[in-house]
């Protein structure tokens, strides 16, 4: 009887020791498991989502300010060209909208949400932010990475029937696209087409379309126009930020609008007509 009890005790000690070893091994394995890599949390179709960004290159896509409109354009135009190849939206239009809607990457909404096109929620299932636009506290889409904003812009235009007529235009008809976007309701600003066209022509963005289409790259300067381009001031903008958007100096803006100081008000209309002398 004593021998039987002793055998049971020895077996129990061995089993406890074996279980402890297994738990220790499991903890060690968990501790050495590689960390989960960066993922896209925006709820879009993975087939239409750009390739994921690795942990090593993630920092390259975090928000950073741009010292000029040209720097912003050079940074993002490769993405606009790729979107044109895939979705037939003129790269010139994509870039001009991005420049205008994001304040060349320095707008408050872009800083908060990597939203470069001012796209509102519209049944969006991803992250959101609230931002004052036409009304206070409107809901806007938020992106982990700027490139997802560019892709979502393409999906937004190709996925809605009201923009279907735009794709019947010639792929380099940036003027038709600019007017069609306004007509289809993309923007409420009546001067939206003129603003896009002015940006495209000022920075020769029509050449991005030519590069993708394999047509002749044009080298010309737009003729001076009688048309006045107006900009409606929104919350957070300054004369300096607006001057950079239209490639003007603060002094030119003040002269265009008869301003004696740098004070401007939300809703104020500013004359931002390009100054072609010395373009």
Descriptive notes:
The radius of gyration is 27 Å and the shape is globular. It has helices at 2-31, 69-87, 91-102, 108-113, 146-158, 174-183, 192-202, 206-213, 239-245, 250-257, and strands at 128-131, 138-141, 230-232, 269-271. Strands 1-2 form a two-stranded antiparallel ribbon. The chain has a two-stranded antiparallel sheet with strand order 3-4. It starts with a helix and ends in an 8-residue tail after the last strand. The chain has 279 residues and is mainly alpha-helical. Helix 2 (69-87) packs across helix 5. A hairpin with a 6-residue loop joins strand 1 (128-131) and strand 2. It is built from ten helices and four strands.
Query: Strand pairing plus helix content: what structural class?
Result: mainly alpha
Characterize the biggest β-sheet: 2 strands, antiparallel
Number of strands: 4
**Approximately what portion of the residues adopt beta-strand conformation?**
5-15%
Please tally the helical runs, counting DSSP H or I stretches of 4 or more residues. Answer: 10
Unreliable spans are 22-61
Morphology:
globular
End-to-end distance: 106 Å
List the helices and strands and how they pair.
Layout: H1 2-31, H2 69-87, H3 91-102, H4 108-113, E1 128-131, E2 138-141, H5 146-158, H6 174-183, H7 192-202, H8 206-213, E3 230-232, H9 239-245, H10 250-257, E4 269-271
Antiparallel strand pairs: 1-2, 3-4
Helix pairs in contact: 2-3, 2-5, 3-7, 6-7, 9-10
Which structural traits does this protein have?
10 helices, 279 residues, 4 strands, two-stranded antiparallel sheet, mainly alpha
């Amino acid at each position: 009887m004593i021998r039987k009890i002793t055998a049971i005790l020895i077996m129990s000690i061995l089993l406890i020791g074996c279980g402890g070893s297994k738990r220790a091994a499991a903890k060690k394995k968990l501790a050495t498991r590689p960390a989960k890599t960066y993922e896209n949390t925006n709820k879009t179709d993975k087939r239409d989502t750009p390739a994921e960004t690795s942990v090593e290159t993630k920092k390259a896509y975090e928000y950073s300010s741009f010292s000029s409109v040209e720097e912003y354009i050079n940074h993002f135009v490769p993405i606009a060209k790729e979107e044109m190849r895939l979705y037939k939206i003129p790269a010139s239009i994509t870039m001009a909208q991005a420049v205008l809607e994001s304040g060349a990457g320095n707008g408050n909404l872009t800083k908060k949400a990597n939203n470069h096109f001012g796209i509102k929620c519209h049944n969006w299932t991803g992250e959101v932010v609230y931002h004052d636009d036409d009304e206070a506290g409107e809901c806007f889409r938020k992106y982990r990475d700027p490139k997802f904003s560019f892709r979502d812009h393409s999906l937004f235009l190709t996925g809605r029937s009201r923009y279907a007529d735009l794709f019947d235009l010639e792929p380099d008809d940036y003027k038709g696209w600019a007017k069609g976007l306004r007509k289809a309701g993309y923007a409420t600003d009546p001067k939206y087409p003129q603003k896009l066209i002015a940006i495209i022509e000022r920075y020769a963005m029509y050449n991005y379309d030519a590069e993708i289409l394999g047509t002749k790259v044009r080298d010309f300067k737009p003729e001076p126009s009688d048309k006045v381009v107006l900009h409606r001031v929104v919350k957070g903008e300054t004369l300096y930020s607006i001057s950079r958007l239209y490639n003007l100096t603060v002094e030119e803006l003040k002269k265009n609008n008869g301003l004696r100081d740098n004070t401007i008000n939300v809703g104020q209309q500013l004359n931002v007509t390009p100054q072609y002398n010395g373009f």
